[in-house]
Amino acid sequence: MIAARRNLEKIDQALAARDKFLVTQDVLINPLRKLAGMYDYIFLDTAPNATTPTIAAYKSADWFILSATPDPFAIAGLNDALTDIQGAQRYGNPNLRLLGVILCCVDSRTILASSLTEYVEKLFSDGSKSLKFDTLISRSTVVPQSQKLGKTIFQTAPNHKVTKQYRKLSKEIEARIAEFEEPVTTSTIKSAVSTKRGKK
């Protein structure tokens, strides 16, 4: 895991200074190819807005995973994400596919969360099956607490409910990939963009 830094805000200027002919949207393609076979999966966690790193991730990934919280503004932002996917498919990455939608910070006790979860289920359904992942990630303080310590919840709270949900989700993601294509081997790299849609 390579954590993001505030320096990424200056990446446009840094890349331009390095090579003025460099196509910044393509900077991740060759590095990811070089990593093929070294990892089973590479996750590129991007911002919801179309920054240079985000667009570069769109153009280099195989799969697109949407992540949203069950609130009206975040759910509305999912439509923008679909537009981003279509744009990436038209301009350089025709093989990019939406793998699924993850709902995080879910408080199942509220009527709003339940209704929006149902809405997402229908929004991403083709009539027979929805692309929303079955696993919901509950709202909990365990995640920000782990972030504060600079560790994962698997290290700080291995038996917590949310940790178990993430384990279940990882299995669901692997099953979804296997369903969409041939099983992944150690010599094949599958990179996925995970885009968060938070409150605006």
Automatic annotation (TrEMBL):
Keywords: Plasmid. Residues 2-97 form the AAA domain. This is ParA, chromosome partitioning protein. The keyword NADP does not apply.
